[in-house]
């Protein structure tokens, strides 16, 4: 049994990680300032005696006492509209927050895993993206508040590894969806599914030919836990390589929901990457990991969860 700290533990991915560690018998401390995380995400396991919640902004403090075996730093806004609304907070949590989380791991000689992102590849000129690709990022563009901040967080993490011998890991997370993805968080899967359920127009940004590759949350979390359990220190892509244009995604969503929603076209956000797809050779070779859940099945699970949320009076 280990005692594991998950920053961002009330968030979409963070709460699934907490749940997975509790299920296998670990103790979990979730730290979250509830800016984009939600207390509701903790409800399924909040009463577990092995679970503890600490409400704190890890950019300012990380008030965890007692022994710690693992630190997973998952605190950050992750949806483009949200990190663009919270640009300084996003940079703080990736810089000051990562430093604090690394210091907690160092003080306890704990395993550390950083939640990084496919955004470190920017608008990639290499396709699909292997971890060796160093990316195409505009440091002064609007998205830099997230992608440059996460790149800096990776640099900090590798510095603690090289300087102090800290056992660190870096997961580059590609687009992920599933239960607890907030309906109003502004990302494409939540937007399209909610619009389809409501029979409202589906908002396609640009001409809809840009691509993303969507990983179901259970697959993503299994990959992150495999990385945590390993001693791999180099960055690892965890994502589903099945690539879709946004027009194709809209079609699949309409089919799964059984929705007649029409499409409306809206402007493409500045710096929106044209193509994104993980090369998961490293995850396969080093972790024995690959995704299992096809998009249609994962979307059906997400639709069911949104409908349950509504039945509970939470939209
Ligand atoms: N997108 C869209 N309609 C929406 C929301 C997003 O067409 O209502 C597009 C967005 O422009 C991007 C892709 O979907 O090309 C994925 O966007 P998301 O915000 O989910 O995440 P990103 O991969 O850009 O970080």
Using brief descriptors, characterize the structure shown.
single chain, 315 residues, alpha/beta, Rossmann fold, seven-stranded parallel beta sheet, two-stranded parallel sheet, 9 helices, 38% helix, globular, binds uridine-5'-diphosphate
Written overview of the protein:
The protein has 315 residues and is an alpha/beta fold. It has one domain: Rossmann fold. Helix content is 38%, strand content 17%. It is built from nine helices and 13 strands. The protein has helices at 12-23, 80-85, 87-108, 144-164, 188-197, 217-229, 246-257, 281-287, 295-311, and strands at residues 3-7, 27-32, 51-55, 70-73, 111-117, 168-173, 176-177, 202-205, 211-213, 215-216, 235-238, 243-245, 263-266. The strands form four sheets. A seven-stranded parallel β-sheet has the order 3-2-1-4-5-6-11, sandwiched between helices. Strands 7-10 form a two-stranded parallel ribbon. Helix 1 links the parallel strand 1 and strand 2. Helix 5 runs parallel beside helix 7. The two termini are 37 Å apart. The mean pLDDT is 97. Bound molecules: uridine-5'-diphosphate (UDP). Residues 79-80, 175, 187-188, 191, 203-205, 210, 212, 246, 268-269, 272 line the site of uridine-5'-diphosphate.
